[in-house]
């Protein structure tokens, strides 16, 4: 069934199943629904989904999650919430992926009251519903100011969701955007202490963040440190450095020269040089 769906022949194959004496089971129906939603045929997928309920071939949590995510992607969040409620009513237990799909899209439209209501449900249900790294990162991305972050991280850690390398990189990006250098320093130190970085993504965030703030010395420092560790810059970072070199030549190399001279007089991280 999976292979047929990948070749775009799911509809014909499904008709053959219906015409035969074979009765579609939960797995076959779920696989077809997944294929339909991936190809943007949500309407057809919803009809089949409804038929499963009506014929007592109850969809499992994976199929329900597929429908919920597709509805959210199409910005049909109220309908997705209806499917979520129906899952609960029919004793199809949701999991963290179910909640994360809803939270992701509700955060985008800033329905934060509903988002925190869902988070409380996840905490109460526990087990497979407990918040995870994905949940944490959706909440962090929706943060509007630095003061919101510590409480959120503490709440997630109480649920057993500790920061990962991706979480630290997201925090670096947020704090750089907010120009909160003290928190940038703390995040970098914690990431190193816990053995979760820095990686190429960490350096890329620092390089582009400092460049956006016109801080040439820090930009060059982190680029050199990254390459000295054998990390290959992202294409956009190479383009940035080429652009800086061209600009420096036009200006007689004074900006980069001054940054290099200043860099040779200092050692360690340059957090306090603003």
Automatic annotation (TrEMBL):
PPR repeats lie at residues 25-59, 60-94, 95-125, 199-233. It comes from the Eukaryota. Residues 245-274 are annotated as: Disordered. Keywords: Repeat. The keyword Transcription does not apply. Residues 248-260 have a biased composition (Basic and acidic residues). GO terms for molecular function: mRNA binding. Residues 264-274 have a biased composition (Polar residues). Belongs to the PPR family. P subfamily. This is Pentacotripeptide-repeat region of PRORP domain-containing protein.
């Amino acid at each position: 069934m999976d292979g047929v769906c990948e070749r775009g022949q799911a509809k014909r194959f499904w008709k053959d199943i219906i015409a035969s004496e074979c009765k579609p089971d939960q797995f076959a129906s779920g696989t077809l629904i997944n294929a339909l939603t991936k190809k943007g045929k949500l309407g057809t997928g919803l009809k089949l989904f409804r038929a499963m309920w009506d014929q007592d071939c109850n969809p499992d949590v994976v199929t329900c999650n597929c429908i919920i995510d597709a509805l959210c992607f199409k910005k049909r969040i109220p309908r997705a919430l209806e499917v979520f409620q129906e899952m609960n009513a029919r004793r199809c237990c949701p999991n963290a992926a179910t909640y994360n799909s809803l939270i992701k899209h509700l955060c985008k439209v800033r329905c934060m009251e509903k988002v925190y209501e869902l988070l409380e449900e996840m905490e109460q249900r526990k087990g497979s519903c407990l918040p995870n790294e994905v949940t944490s990162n959706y909440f962090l991305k929706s943060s509007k100011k630095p003061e919101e972050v510590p409480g959120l991280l503490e709440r997630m850690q109480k649920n057993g969701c500790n920061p990962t390398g991706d979480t630290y990189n997201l925090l670096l990006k947020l704090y750089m955007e907010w120009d909160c250098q003290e928190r940038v320093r703390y995040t970098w130190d914690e990431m190193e202490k816990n053995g979760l970085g820095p990686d190429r993504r960490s350096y890329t965030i620092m390089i582009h963040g400092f460049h956006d703030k016109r801080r040439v010395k820090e930009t060059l420092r982190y680029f050199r440190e990254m390459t000295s560790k054998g990390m290959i810059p992202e294409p956009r970072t190479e383009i940035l450095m080429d652009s800086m070199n061209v600009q420096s030549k036009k200006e007689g190399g004074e900006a980069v020269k001054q940054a290099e001279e200043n860099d040779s007089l200092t050692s360690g991280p340059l957090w306090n040089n603003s």
